[in-house]
């Protein structure tokens, strides 16, 4: 399991990669597709780690709230919101990694479409010669 700081650094690198421009050349598209496959796998693993840290913090805070007697003073929904608010950094990391994973998947789908279009374009050029 990766430390939280390493997860944050990886999320920032993943985000920068997803925002970077890329060439429309078929070989470059294929290279990026391969890198996106790796990024999706790694971001999924990081997401699982981030959820573990969040769940661990929330569990600890639930125990603290019970010991402090908040359960009898707050409604269950207010208690849930209070505890979730204590995990704001962990929630941010989980949300970032979730969005990174989804964005990488969408970018991968888009690149496959571009590559398919380029393949068709190339075939039609060869056919007309």
How would you describe this protein?
With 129 residues, the chain is mainly α. It has five helices and no strands. It has helices at residues 4-19, 26-68, 70-73, 76-86, 88-128. The mean pLDDT is 90.
Give a nutshell description of this structure.
The protein is mostly helical and 129 residues long. Helices cover 89% and strands 0% of the residues. It contains 5 helices and no strands.
How does the helix and strand content classify structurally?
mainly alpha
User: What is the global morphology?
Assistant: elongated
Helix content: over 70%
- Characterize the main sheet: none
Order of helices and strands: HHHHH
Can you give keywords for this protein?
129 residues, mainly alpha, 5 helices
Spell out the blueprint of helices and strands.
Blueprint: H1 4-19, H2 26-68, H3 70-73, H4 76-86, H5 88-128
Helix pairs in contact: 1-2, 1-5, 2-4, 2-5
């Amino acid at each position: 399991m990766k430390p939280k700081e390493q997860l944050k650094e990886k999320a920032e690198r993943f985000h920068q990669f997803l925002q970077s421009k890329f060439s429309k050349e078929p070989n470059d598209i294929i290279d990026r597709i391969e890198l996106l496959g790796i990024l999706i796998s790694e971001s999924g693993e990081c997401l699982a780690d981030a959820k573990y840290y969040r769940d661990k913090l929330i569990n600890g805070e639930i125990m603290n709230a019970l010991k402090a007697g908040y359960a009898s003073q707050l409604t269950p929904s207010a208690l849930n919101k209070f505890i979730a608010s204590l995990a704001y950094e962990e929630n941010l990391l989980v949300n970032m990694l979730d969005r990174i994973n989804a964005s990488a998947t969408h970018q991968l789908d888009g690149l496959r479409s571009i590559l398919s279009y380029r393949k068709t374009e190339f075939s039609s050029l060869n056919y007309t010669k």
